[in-house]
Amino acid sequence: MAIWLTENSKIIVQGMTGGEGTKHTRRMLASGARVVGGVNARKAGTTHEGLPVFGTVKEAMEQTGADVSVAFVPPAFTKDAVKEAIDAEIPLCVVITEGVPVHDSTEFWAYAIAKGNKTRIIGPNCPGIASPGASNAGIIPADITTAGRIGLVSKSGTLTYQLMYELRDFGFSTAVGIGGDPVIGTTHIDALQAFQDDPGTDAIVMIGEIGGDAEERAAAYIEQHVTKPVVAYVAGFTAPEGKTMGHAGAIVSGSAGTAQAKKEALEKVGVRVGKTPSETARLMREIMQSR
């Protein structure tokens, strides 16, 4: 089992004909993902990488049966691309683009809600979603782990890859990189709920980072709704006080949003928190070995 992305998922790539779109379309195809076409209004009717290019997401869905879109679209055009995917009611839209204005992200997130939440948005500024052995939508390397029964949700792209690699001997049902921007479509809580409901997931790794209160809200959700074991890592334990670090969402104000405050909130509800990614992997390894 997996969440949101399975071996039956049919993927289209918005911006497939661009440099990044081309490179990662090739990588997704090489991983075995079912990429069925691309979208570029100016190149509709042509082929690229052996795949048809359509003028709109709606047309691509009608012609191919696609149910996932991956967007490699420049920041200035991302809002319109995501709204087009929402209008087409594609079930999943994975927005890889970095540097999307927060106002634009807020606008397309609200647009999805107004349209009845028929499209799940992952991102922006994220590595995407991978269900090892089944499908891969985004830029997560396909060969760093195996299929298994751990679920992973992460704000950080590179830490997603590290935990997937360190726990490759157990493997993953699905790994979701939700992105580190202040406004994102899918949250830790959304993924925690899906993993809790997924019979193919036995335990969950959650990666957060300094700034905001997403991890504290996730802790409250875990206390009330999650019965599967969760281990966590919060990036930023060594961040200098008062300095903005990394992602746009990693802003610390006073004691709120610090790694220590997040660690304490998570541990209070029974989540084991590693001080390093490798320690986090060790904690999960202990859980999986005891099952």
Automatic annotation (TrEMBL):
Keyword match Nucleotide-binding: yes
Domain CoA-binding: 4-100
Coiled-coil residue windows: none
Pathway participation: Carbohydrate metabolism; tricarboxylic acid cycle; succinate from succinyl-CoA (ligase route): step 1/1
Active site per UniProt: H247
Record: residues binding substrate: Y161
Enzyme class of the recorded protein, top EC level: ligase
Reactions listed under catalytic activity: GTP + succinate + CoA = succinyl-CoA + GDP + phosphate; succinate + ATP + CoA = succinyl-CoA + ADP + phosphate
MF (Gene Ontology): succinate-CoA ligase (ADP-forming) activity
Key word ATP-binding present: no
Family named by the database record: Belongs to the succinate/malate CoA ligase alpha subunit family.
Annotated protein name in UniProt: Succinate--CoA ligase [ADP-forming] subunit alpha
Native source organism of the sequence: Nonomuraea guangzhouensis
Lineage start: Bacteria, Bacillati, Actinomycetota, Actinomycetes, Streptosporangiales
